Sequence to fold (279 residues):
Amino acid sequence: MEVLINSNTITIYNPNSFDIKHILECGQVFRYFIAPTHARVLSQNHCADVIKNNHKIVIHCDDAQFFYNFFDLDKDYNFIKKAVSINPLMKKAVNFGQGIRILKNDFFEMIISFIISANNNIGRIKKTLNFICQELGQNMGDYYAFPKLEVLAQAPESFFRAAGCGYRSPHLTDTLNALKDNFVEFYRELKNLSTHSASKKLSALKGVGEKVADCILLFGLQRYDVFPVDVWISKVYKENFGGELTSTKAIRRFFIDLFGDLAGYAQQYLFYYKRSYKV
Fold:
């Protein structure tokens, strides 16, 4: 895979480890839409339109360096795919989702997004986040930025209920109030903690359990030694990995021990394969 970059365009030739549908539909991001000819993805106040053109991908964006980092385009996914292909199932999952890349998304946006994601579905999450951005985010012309912490922290619980957050609404207001005066320090502390300690600290926030903490760590802090466990991962464990464990905590530990520092990548391949293919 060869990548060329200029100020507003990224071109990927022979994109064997880049498929925008795989990337956007594997549960790691919610501010996107996919059309027959292209896809659009938003992060913070940035926007990228991704177009497949024969044997290349062209990304038109407002900041090419931002999206080069966002799509983690300097990482060798061929090595990762080979390393996690430890059995026939993993080989099938990797082949099915061969274009997945774990995005380097904004930490704050991931906290809010994954609190909203708890016991939710992707369509509703997208709708809720779109409402929040349209109401409180900066108008960037043909899209809206994700609202800043200081703006969201002023929103009452009734706003989040109107956005469709339901029982998560007080969790959001509590967490925003907890973060508004010390977010930079909180972020720096998490970056310096072990993954286990960072998970415990995140889980002290309202609305953040173990699975949500793992998602925030994986997609917002690039901690790849985590393994978010949801209903699809529980099914794949039960049906394809022995199935003797019953608690999500034990299943999570099983997969982290199995895949080590690449556990987060393995989770994305398995999740996308199981949810899409339902095997």
